[in-house]
Amino acid sequence: MSPEKLRVIARGCVTRYHSYHYLGFAATQWKLFNKERPRRIKPLLYVYRVLLTGIKLMRTGEVQADLVQLNEEFKLSYIADLIARKLAGPEKSILEDADMPLYQREYNRLCSELEESSQASSLPERPSCKAALNDLLVRLRMMPLVGR
């Protein structure tokens, strides 16, 4: 099966309920980030990447996991600043406690934005590719082991 056909099937798997995956994953990563001492930029960027990826998915049906590309769309100045600090080296990658209220507010705001994007999404409630997935699975099972 061609990569393009697989992409078509994959698009049919995406529903508005994928937002719950992104919200839950972000919540878990936020808890882990908050337990760290000292807090580091990399885990915080990970949290924001998950949320922005989820928002983008709900709005467009496309998965974009590259934070730099996501931020070209979202234009969050603190993301660009955090990325620059992370790239500047380990000594610049520690967060000050005084900055945490901003990052907490943004985490909460992005969670809300993801929830709102899910409710407003034109993505379907159910996957539309059940028959295509079944066909793919049958074809894979019928392939000789050597041909895989």
Q: Overview of this structure, please?
A:
The protein is mainly alpha-helical and 148 residues long. The protein has helices at residues 3-13, 18-35, 41-60, 67-74, 77-87, 100-120, 130-142. Helix 2 (18-35) packs antiparallel against helix 6 and helix 3 runs parallel beside helix 6. The longest helix is centred in the last third of the chain and has 21 residues, at 100-120. The chain starts with a helix and ends in a 6-residue tail after the last helix. 20% of the residues are buried.
List the helices and strands and how they pair.
Blueprint: H1 3-13, H2 18-35, H3 41-60, H4 67-74, H5 77-87, H6 100-120, H7 130-142
Characterize this entry briefly.
By secondary structure, the protein is mainly alpha-helical. It is built from 7 helices and no strands.
